[in-house]
Amino acid sequence: MTPTAPALQLEHVSKDFRFGSLFSRAVHHAVVDVNLHLERCHVLGVVGESGSGKSTLGRIAVGLIPPTSGTVTVAGERLDNLDAGALRRKRRQMQMIFQDSSSSLNPRMTLQDLLMEPFRVQGLLTEPDRRRRASELADEVQLAQAFLPRMPHEFSGGQRQRISIARALALDPGLIVADEPVSALDVSVQAAILNLLKDIQEARDLSMLFISHDMAVIEFMSDDVAVIYQGRIVEHAACQEVFAKPRNDYTKLLLTSTPSL
Ligand SMILES: Nc1ncnc2c1ncn2[C@@H]1O[C@H](COP(=O)(O)OP(=O)(O)OP(=O)(O)O)[C@@H](O)[C@H]1O
Q1: What are phi and psi of 148, to 5 degrees?
Q2: Can you give the CATH number for the domain in which 221 is found?
Q3: Cα(226) to centroid of ligand 1, in Å?
Q4: Which GO terms describe its biological process (predicted)?
Q5: How far is the CA of 261 from the centre of ligand 1 (A)?
């Protein structure tokens, strides 16, 4: 690992999805020749309409799916150069936060168990230390200690998203990919979760790829912005620049058509 290397670098990354039988083949080019650069401790917003390839890009960035071509380098290490064991270890440093958090929470586990689970799965820490870390993580995402014995169904959507954020933070990742983390929430709750994510990103010096279709959300969260259209990056610059002086017609369209938070 190189200490000065960017948190994430995508070079000429493409992803094709293939459909059909042997006799009728079709290919969908979901991501096309993407180059992205995320500086350490920065937030890179990725914005585009539904189906533009944002989630595919996020999954490629954390090594959940391989690109069809191109390279992904995380903190100086190319993911395609890692063997299965090294990739598993590397994945601890790269966590994803999804839109629909409730589906990933085991309905039969208490909040305490949900927050201890990442350490148990990895065989890290003793039970008392796992309990202590669970309680610290609850504090960090502003969930009361009194909630620790509660089950997922006893929490609101916003609180469940806080649980997912805490679980993503448990193993101290350096890189977070947040894929539409507030899209499923009421507008009143969205702002609170965005503020929390921003505070945590700053306090932990996290590098974050922040995916959203909402320009207002992107503007609030990001240092830099990449605009994706039909799988291609059409604009990639500092956030202020993109919002003050958009160059691409599609970016201009997004800016005029997205309602503010
Ligand atoms: N596993 C898959 N198999 C086939 N096609 C896929 C697969 N995953 C994504 N796609 C297709 O690739 C394109 C990009 O999808 P992706 O989910 O990355 O877009 P997105 O910008 O995140 O959209 P949304 O915000 O609606 O999730 C879409 O046309 C989608 O149908």
Answers
A1: -55, -35
A2: 3.40.50.300
A3: 17
A4: transmembrane transport
A5: 25
Q: Is the pLDDT of residue 261 over 50?
A: no
Give domain status of residue 155, yes or no: no
pTM for the model stands at: 0.93
Whether residue 46 is contained in a domain is answered as yes
Take atom 26 of ligand 1 and give the residue whose Cα is closest: 50
- Binding site membership of 15 for ligand 1 (Cβ less than 6 Å): no
| 48-89: pLDDT as tens digits | 999 999 999 999 999 999 999 999 999 999 999 999 889 888
Q: Is the C-alpha dihedral spanning 51, 53, 58, 60 positive or negative?
A: positive
Range of the domain at 256: 1-18+28-93+208-261
DSSP code per residue over 130-159:
HHHHHHHHHHHTT--GGGTT--GGGS-HHH
Q: How many CA atoms lie within 13 A of 62 on its CB side?
A: 26
How far, in Å, is the centroid of ligand 1 from the Cα of 51? 5
